[in-house]
Amino acid sequence: MKMILLRAAAASLTVCGLLMPAAVVHAAPDLSGGAVDGQHPELGDPSESPSTAPAGDPSEAPSAGPSEASPADPSGEPSIEPSPMPEVGAPAAATAASGAVPAAAKKAIDATAKKFASQLGRASTPIRCGIKDGGCYRTFAKGSIHWSKATGAQPTWGAIRATWKNTKWERGRLGYPVMAQKCGLPGGGCYQTFQKGSIHWSKATGAQATWGAIRSEWKRTGWERGVLGYPTTMEKCGLAGGGCYQHFQRGSIHWSKTTGAHATWGTIRSTWQKNSWERGKYGYPTGRASVGNDGKVRQKFQGGTITTGVVSTGLPHGITADGGRQLVIAHTASRSSKTGTAELWELRDDARWHRKQTFTGARFGYRGLATASAKREGDGKTPMGQYRFPFAFGTAAKPSGTKIEYRRVDHNDQWCTRSGSRHYNRWMSAPNSNCTAKQAEVLSKYAQYRYGAVVDYNSRQQANRGSAIFVHVHGRGSTAGCVSVTAGQMQTMLSWLRPEQNPRIVIAPRAELKNQ
């Protein structure tokens, strides 16, 4: 006899061009038993067996479309009624009918039901077996528990369970759950990992599943913490050449058999969209977006390469980068301020700027700051603007890890400050009649030059427009037109600078940084 099994529901100034002695989230559902941990699947979670589909197979059975049931609260009751289980063979039906549930399954399901009683509610069916891979399940008022030998007993509920149902439960693309739902992700998000994928939920996006090659690419970009954010749709197929795609909060991932899965976002994605996506002249993306040392992002497609302008995304105060991947931001409260802050920022592979270090207590000119056009030799003001770091120098040995050119200062090394000299605003390795020692800074005489980095201000040697502008170690008070920080901060900065990344510095009051 055959049986139908029912399915569950779900002072003083220093130097710098002035030859004077120094004088002057959404709340996460409560998961008992330590389920809320904020950790992400596959980050220290050995229980997961992720799908690693090759480029030729992103979805063995393409998804029919996005989930239509994504309740606002993943811990709430599912909006979809239980669906009946397909008819199973007589032996399995007999096992269920006779109550001969495997002892290991009963023990695990009972323990899980106790641990997650608040999420699941009361049991509404007995334990039933005979599903895929010899699995068993039990339905509760607000969810269900599924057990298999490979995964143990795992609960599902709410929006995540509803999406799992839409993918055909354990018989579908995801397989069995391998862990309970966990929360604490950005924006109050939650997730649950399955044998061949995962489901992520956030209040803004609902519960969406990811698997195969597209999921692997999303993982590479940093999951929901990365450039793409949470998925906003399920995987969809039927594109040109049998391709598939999935949309995320800030981008998309497209797959084709010949190109594999690649993410697109920002300006490159907008340009690709304007050119009719994969159906246009560019075709599918064939590689990852990469950030160049010029500060631009490039991505290769079947029909060519799309290149952005210089990236400024993530920089504070409306700053527009002139190029490069490293930027020192030296800022004050106003043009008259003599102290402020220096920050180290870097353009990373996610095509966003990130702050690396903050140096408080930075010092500026004893007469504050001036625009580059108003700056004059010996005026005691630090020039505003954005400049390169051509090289570094110091009376001390090169700090460990320093890659930028570093010139060890000896008693002959000088910086010419005589306007009109052919050596004006230039390093000199020995004095000469065109710019004598009295018309130059003898670098070895100043303690502040234990460590320094040259700011490429007035590189055209315009007469009387200022010279010897550096970032250097603190003296006894304000500088004569440079920026100074502590010796330890200078060492940190010098070991951080990478010449191939075209490092720069921008100097201005905070309100004027956007104009530099």
From TrEMBL:
<dbReference type="InterPro" id="IPR005490">
    <property type="entry name" value="LD_TPept_cat_dom"/>
</dbReference>
<dbReference type="Pfam" id="PF03734">
    <property type="entry name" value="YkuD"/>
</dbReference>
<feature type="signal peptide">
    <location>
        <begin position="1"/>
        <end position="27"/>
    </location>
</feature>
<feature type="compositionally biased region" description="Low complexity">
    <location>
        <begin position="53"/>
        <end position="79"/>
    </location>
</feature>
<protein>
    <submittedName>
        <fullName>L,D-transpeptidase family protein</fullName>
    </submittedName>
</protein>
<feature type="domain" description="L,D-TPase catalytic">
    <location>
        <begin position="357"/>
        <end position="499"/>
    </location>
</feature>
<dbReference type="InterPro" id="IPR013207">
    <property type="entry name" value="LGFP"/>
</dbReference>
<keyword id="KW-0732">Signal</keyword>
<dbReference type="Pfam" id="PF08310">
    <property type="entry name" value="LGFP"/>
</dbReference>
<feature type="region of interest" description="Disordered">
    <location>
        <begin position="33"/>
        <end position="93"/>
    </location>
</feature>
